[in-house]
Structures
1.
Amino acid sequence: MDEVTVHSPATVSNVVCGFDCLGFALAEPFDLITVRRIEQPTIRIINRDDYGLPTEPSKNVAGVALLAMLQVMEASFGFEVEITKGIKPGSGIGSSSASSCGAVAAANHLLGNPFTKAELVGFAMEGEKLASGAKHADNVAPCIFGGFTLVRSLDPLDIVSLTYPQLFATVIHPQIEIKTSEARAILPTSVPLADAVRNWSNLGAFVAGLVNRDYELISKSMVDVIVEPARSPLITNFDEVKAAGIGAGALGGGISGSGPSIFMISSSLETAQAVRRAMKEVYSSTGIEFNLYVSGIEREGVRIV
Amino acid sequence: MDEVTVHSPATVSNVVCGFDCLGFALAEPFDLITVRRIEQPTIRIINRDDYGLPTEPSKNVAGVALLAMLQVMEASFGFEVEITKGIKPGSGIGSSSASSCGAVAAANHLLGNPFTKAELVGFAMEGEKLASGAKHADNVAPCIFGGFTLVRSLDPLDIVSLTYPQLFATVIHPQIEIKTSEARAILPTSVPLADAVRNWSNLGAFVAGLVNRDYELISKSMVDVIVEPARSPLITNFDEVKAAGIGAGALGGGISGSGPSIFMISSSLETAQAVRRAMKEVYSSTGIEFNLYVSGIEREGVRIV
């Protein structure tokens, strides 16, 4: 095998009540990433898009993830990586994760799959550390595993795949910039115990709702009294967009990752389209440019094209 | 129907990672409660045990719960309640909940079941308020519903019944006194966000473990970095008992409710018996008297005898 090309999905992390642990993969948008083995013990990055991302391996999330993999292997060879980003950087739907996960998953396949999915998550987390300053797995886990994932523990890394009913996501990406590091800095360092209890009660119920395919419970549990109140003021018309989405029939929704994207989930494609129209109407009046996506849940995660 | 007698189970609340929301019902020990309708619009309490609990309705948890029910009904009649407690007051396995839930469930049956289970939880919570100074439902919910329950929200009251695999509990009740109000006062009023995240990640995983009947995940998720470190110093030899229980094969365990009882759960009766022996051995050296229970999970909750 000379090269492997993968389809690497966007992901929604936090999912309202699961800050820093819950996430799911989107069928769209996605990146296309091709990895080739090269003789030289280095990483060569070729960007096939107009985002002007760094090509120096140590400054590129895919490069950092691949370097971590090569280091573990004590490899004497390297990789050339060609990245076509369909996921806009800084959108809050796991753009950096898609790059780093896609790169390591493609490289793993090229080498005959010496690494487990959990190990790939570990390498990709090095990319997250570069992107946000913190090692976290709530985007990389669903990107690698697909579907809904819960990161039970970071050390040791323990990822739980959750079953779920038919769901469709509607995502609006307003073209405003929120740096992940800034969105982290705005969070409280400590929270009232009573608020924490409300949050874990809702997360427990949300997980039960997913696994039991209980749409009503999923809907009721999508409540966040800790992170959303702190971050939502950073996003123009957040409350209006959320209310419009729920008014159009969405089960619930909120900030995707650290924003600025806002996601909604619905039980049918028809509802997700109605939610799209409702969200679009709110944002059309703001003068801010935006992208809109309606997408199923990506069951598989990164996959070979 | 002249009278109704019910079997009202002990319950374990918090369950390590589910502080203030999670609980399950024990097959043993239990209270026996008989309720009779009387002409006078009052509550008459007869205690058939040696615990010397108050008989004045407004100072007795069963009395308070029944008064709440009568008030909603604008009733012109009353109840006589005969209570035989099998659950020692102050044990931390839901003694007050068993009294109040048993009383309202028996009265409800006597009246032809005008109230839903959720409404009975609401009445019984008035008893919890009397007992601990705070309205909470993590013991009354499993006492009424049986099995494992998650209180998603107190206002509005929303209780989620969780499915679960075969499990057996081992409970040790050291004869030391910990007042619920004191055990509450020792808790931090706020917690680091990172600790809260660890806790909700574990609770989410625990719920997934229960519903998916995944013993390994149940075991790994029984971690509490918030409440157990604060409360466990109140319980003599807590760490040793817990370590002995896990060493004997328990999936996990911790403080039952606000203590002093310590519970362990195991996947088989045989293991639960081995856990019993291990816990007994640790406590035998302390000079403190204790009771030990090995019990299945009570599926039904309060039931008519």
2.
Amino acid sequence: MGRWEPNARGRLEQAALELYIERGFDQTTVAEIAMRAGLTERTFFRHFADKREVLFGGASMLQEFLVGAVAGAPASAAPIDAIARALQTVGAQFDERRDSVRQRQTVIVANTELRERELIKLASLAAAMAEALRGRGVTDPAAGLAAEAGIAVFRIAFERWIDDTDQRDLSHHIRESLAELKALTAGASSHGVREGLGQVPT
Amino acid sequence: MGRWEPNARGRLEQAALELYIERGFDQTTVAEIAMRAGLTERTFFRHFADKREVLFGGASMLQEFLVGAVAGAPASAAPIDAIARALQTVGAQFDERRDSVRQRQTVIVANTELRERELIKLASLAAAMAEALRGRGVTDPAAGLAAEAGIAVFRIAFERWIDDTDQRDLSHHIRESLAELKALTAGASSHGVREGLGQVPT
């Protein structure tokens, strides 16, 4: 084989996802991933620092992208709209590679450590989007809340997209989840909330 | 010293928090905590499995409490109200021990691993509250969204409570953050959200 391997990164990623699903993440070695991809371990390490980076290597690009999308939303966009637009554009990208995103999710869900890493990634994305909103002049607590609520909407929409037998777009589920959150919070009774204080149900 | 130590658990907790703040979590040993509390290591290990459990030992009780509060909310309470009530009652407990909760937060914020553990704890609380809502007959995505949004509100309220020089109650900040989330989502333009699709800002 020559030094130049066509689409080595993509082939390694696909081989890794298959093996993580077949054998489990912990049971898979870099040597096995390289062999499945028809490449060498050395080539693997030219593309990924370790086998976990196959799953999380895209996180910093995703963050840059979301931050750019929030910053680039029209000046007139409300905070939650700037967040929603950013998530929608990510959603469109996920739709384009639905199969590998689903495979990745299967791997993550099956492993406690990876689930925790994914949570930390999402929290970092929320923090970065909140910061991008502050850069647009949005004050706290609105900036933090809009970003956290956006990530909550995205997580729920993502789960529904993964399970959607009708294969509707992720953007469809994001719209639906945002509408649902709006309906939920609109239903909050300030009376009920105040009543809660000090009443400890047993 | 006799075998029975008055309030050993509380003394160990206080000694641990002080040392974690003074020296850092990683640099503190169980032996030092026991010495500061005027107790033995053996006594420490009767109360805590390790030095991290001093910070996270209350998580399962907190979860049981929140789940009980959600389950015990009046049948007429809207999902977000059931969550808000549960958080309010926890808030009242935090207010009663404001100093140690603040000390704990200082320790958590200073250490990456502890911050990650705290995130995972909050995600578990959201999942447990979502399950409690399902037990009340709330369907998805409402159950998951209400719980996630509730945790987002709680996190923001908690941060503001920690920084509040006026020392207002945590329940005050929870009410305020929930109202803010309501205002934010009410401002979401479904038009703006749809427009977002496919427009990748650069």
